[in-house]
């Protein structure tokens, strides 16, 4: 919602939110293991939601369900109010669902800029038929639009100075930022980040949060990030969902989660 009132931490108040993603009563079973057991989640536009929970709580599996890599045994996934539970990964990606993975996925031999171009190239190829019908000039303008998006992301992620450095030789902070950038060039409406600050120091993690907020200021996107770093989630997310044994143990703003007796007992210790 462009021009929505923004709270002191850059967060959008609940009343101003529109739902961009809704996961309802999802279950995933692997043989005898209930990886997700009746989990629900709502994400608003321009909202940053953190998902925390111990190892094996079902966080990555939940991302697999939202992005279409895994069909749930039960439950629904809605994107902008449309049921997409039966849609493929490719369909959801085309409609704005993007994710990063727990293990890094960049091309080490390509430069930072080439990595971003390679990511955005997929979008251009998909537009190929229409672009061909419209002729060379549109093809050129399509290419320059993609190049502009890459430049925007270089700036947003503070990677401009490293644009010509091979991704394989980046320090970890910049490498994680590049991963985020590869998702952002697609201008996602739902962005899923699996442990984006893993291995980062506090300042590098804060820089990532700054980049995400800058993106959300200009795009009607909802971000969900899985984190082991509870401090980061408490400091930077609008809302937190605590998963435990595949179920939602608690959900709410950071101060509510911090004070929740069930969360303290099960997770925060
Ligand atoms: N492909 C699979 N086959 C069988 N069991 C699986 C599979 N993927 C995940 N599981 C099980 O499902 C449960 C949830 O796993 P998941 O990877 O979603 O947890 P997580 O919260 O992401 O954990 P971590 O914090 O370690 O990344 C675990 O018990 C895991 O062993
Ligand atoms: Mg995981």
Question: Which regions contain 5 or more consecutive residues with pLDDT less than 50?
Answer: 1-16, 127-132
Mind telling me the CATH class of the largest domain?
Alpha Beta
What bound compounds does this protein have? adenosine-5'-triphosphate, magnesium ion
Radius of gyration: 19 Å
Proportion in β-strands: 15-25%
- Tell me which oligomeric state these chains represent: single chain
Q: How much helical structure, as a percent, in the residues? A: 40-55%
CATH hierarchy: architecture of the largest domain: 3-Layer(aba) Sandwich
Largest sheet: 6 strands, mixed
CATH homologous superfamily assignment of the largest domain? P-loop containing nucleotide triphosphate hydrolases
Count of folded domains: 2
Number of helices: 10
Give structural notes.
This protein has 10 helices and 10 strands. The strands form 2 sheets. It has a 6-stranded mixed sheet, sandwiched between helices. The protein has a 4-stranded antiparallel sheet with strand order 2-1-4-5, with helices on one face. The chain folds into 2 domains: 1-96 and 188-269, Rossmann fold; 104-186, no CATH class. The model is unreliable at 1-16 and 127-132 (pLDDT under 50). The chain has 269 residues and is an alpha/beta fold. The protein has helices spanning 59-67, 89-94, 112-126, 128-134, 136-156, 172-184, 202-218, 230-236, 254-259, 261-268; strands at residues 19-30, 33-44, 48-52, 74-79, 82-83, 97-100, 190-194, 222-226, 239-244, 247-252. Bound molecules: adenosine-5'-triphosphate and magnesium ion. Adenosine-5'-triphosphate (ATP) binds at residues 30, 33, 35, 53, 55-61, 102.
């Amino acid at each position: 919602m462009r021009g929505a009132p923004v709270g002191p931490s850059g967060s959008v108040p609940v009343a101003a939110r529109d739902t961009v993603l809704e996961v309802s009563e999802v279950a995933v079973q692997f043989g005898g293991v209930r990886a997700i057991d009746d989990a629900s989640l709502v994400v608003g536009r321009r909202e940053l939601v953190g998902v925390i929970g111990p190892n094996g709580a079902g966080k990555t599996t939940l991302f697999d369900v939202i992005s279409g890599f895994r069909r749930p045994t039960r439950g629904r996934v809605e994107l902008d109010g449309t049921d997409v539970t039966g849609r493929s990964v490719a369909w959801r990606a085309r409609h704005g669902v993007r994710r990063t993975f727990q293990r890094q996925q960049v091309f080490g031999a390509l430069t930072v800029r080439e990595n971003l171009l390679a990511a955005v190239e997929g979008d251009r190829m998909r537009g190929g038929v229409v672009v061909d019908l419209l002729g060379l000039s549109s093809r050129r303008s399509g290419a320059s639009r993609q190049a502009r998006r890459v430049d925007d992301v270089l700036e947003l992620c503070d990677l401009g100075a490293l644009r010509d450095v091979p991704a394989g030789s980046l320090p970890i902070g910049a490498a994680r930022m590049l991963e985020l950038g590869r998702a952002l060039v697609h201008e996602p409406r739902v962005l899923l980040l699996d442990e984006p600050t893993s291995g980062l120091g506090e300042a590098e993690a804060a820089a990532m949060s700054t980049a995400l907020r800058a993106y959300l200021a200009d795009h009607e996107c909802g971000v969900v990030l899985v984190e082991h770093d509870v401090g980061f989630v408490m400091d930077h997310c609008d809302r937190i969902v605590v998963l435990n044994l595949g179920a939602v143990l608690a959900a709410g703003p950071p101060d509510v989660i911090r004070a929740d007796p069930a969360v303290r007992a099960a997770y925060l210790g």
